[in-house]
Amino acid sequence: MIEKLPLGLYVHYPWCIRKCPYCDFNSHPKKSSGCTDEAYLESLIREFEDNLQYVDGREFLSVYFGGGTPSLFSPNLMKKLIDRISPYLNADTEISMEANPGTVSYDLLKAYKDIGINRISLGVQSFNDKSLKALGRIHDSQAAIESCENVKKAEFNNFNIDIMHGLPMQDSTLALDDLKRAIDLGANHLSWYELTIEEDTYFGIHPPKLPAEDELAQIEQDGFSLLEQNNFNRYEVSGYTRDIRCLHNQNYWYFGDYLGIGAGAHSKIKLGSKTYRKANEQKPSDYIQAIRDKKLCFKEVSAENLPFEFMLNRLRIFDRVNIDEFSVTTGLDFSVVKDRLIKAKELGLLNLDESSYGLTDLGRWMLNDILEMFLD
């Protein structure tokens, strides 16, 4: 009997108040959207219904409203989608929503909680006004602090704060000030990651001056120590938690299944022994038209690509990998990757025994080198 994989649902809301200069996500300024949230909601529900065969009778482990800025999507409209997917939820389903300071009040957060949102991920990025200005954020430090306090006041016990480091004009002291503030404000989960410059962004065309490599290394080492001292466990590349992991992200890294609906959303579904993927149109108006024309469809992933895809995800999370995980999630025999894992072990990048394998400290630093071994 072929095992069904855990399933998550990703819902993409593609609009922001303003596009940040570092952002390469599929997001568009709300004021120039050209279509209504009501029309977009209709397409989300239609896409969900058109793809129920891929749900395959499973309940969702998690639902994640990402963006863009999903906190611009009214609770009343969001509730209509949650009501539609409710037959596939259970009492333990993690339902996350990304939010930005400056877009959520206490009353609005309570409204989201009332419709079933039980996890908030707040895109703070920094508590320093100069850094926020350099990043093109719409909020200041005071708005960030107030938003964090409102999340706790609204009784969200599962609360992530996004914090960047390696920002323009930032040194280790300033980077740690941001981390300390996030810790003090009561988040139980932190996403702490380095600012990277992506080609198709404003920063890609007009790159800011960033800290030197030695300063970046110092920031990371000091940050790792601070997080460890405050009982934050690093369980994946940029994820740290005191108690509750992000189940939605963890399912990605474990190479579970996920259905993505919305503009630019991606899906990965295993049915039987085969794996399928789907990538939606990015522009919201094109996405809405594609849904009306039923032009979005799944395509089978070739067996040659699955070893790399599995490792790209599974080695991001630091839990040891059971030997049988590759076969269960890809439908391929472990022998397909065994020799390359042995080579990585010989290079000191992996610990490998008869039942499991995992990255060494060196392997974490040289993850890209390991992944290249699985490219055919």
The end-to-end span amounts to: 30 Å
What structural category arises from helix and sheet content? alpha/beta
Mean of residue pLDDT?
95
Total discrete domains: 2
Q: Please, what is the CATH homologous superfamily of the largest domain?
A: tm_1862 like domain
Could you explain the architecture of this structure?
With 376 residues, the chain is an alpha/beta fold. It has two domains: 7-251, tm_1862 like domain (pyruvate-formate lyase- activating enzyme), CATH 3.80.30.20; 319-376, no CATH class. The chain is 39% helix and 21% strand. The chain has helices spanning 37-50, 52-55, 75-85, 106-114, 129-134, 141-153, 172-184, 202-205, 213-229, 247-253, 284-293, 306-314, 325-330, 335-346, 361-365, 367-372, and strands spanning 7-13, 15-16, 28-29, 60-67, 94-99, 119-125, 159-165, 189-194, 233-234, 239-241, 257-261, 266-271, 274-279, 299-300, 321-322, 350-352, 356-359. The strands form four sheets. A nine-stranded mixed sheet has the order 9-10-8-7-6-5-4-1-11, sandwiched between helices. A three-stranded antiparallel sheet has the order 12-13-14, with no helix packed on it. A three-stranded antiparallel sheet has the order 15-17-16. The longest helix has 17 residues, at 213-229. The two termini are 30 Å apart. The mean pLDDT is 95.
Provide the fold topology.
Blueprint: E1 7-13, E2 15-16, E3 28-29, H1 37-50, H2 52-55, E4 60-67, H3 75-85, E5 94-99, H4 106-114, E6 119-125, H5 129-134, H6 141-153, E7 159-165, H7 172-184, E8 189-194, H8 202-205, H9 213-229, E9 233-234, E10 239-241, H10 247-253, E11 257-261, E12 266-271, E13 274-279, H11 284-293, E14 299-300, H12 306-314, E15 321-322, H13 325-330, H14 335-346, E16 350-352, E17 356-359, H15 361-365, H16 367-372
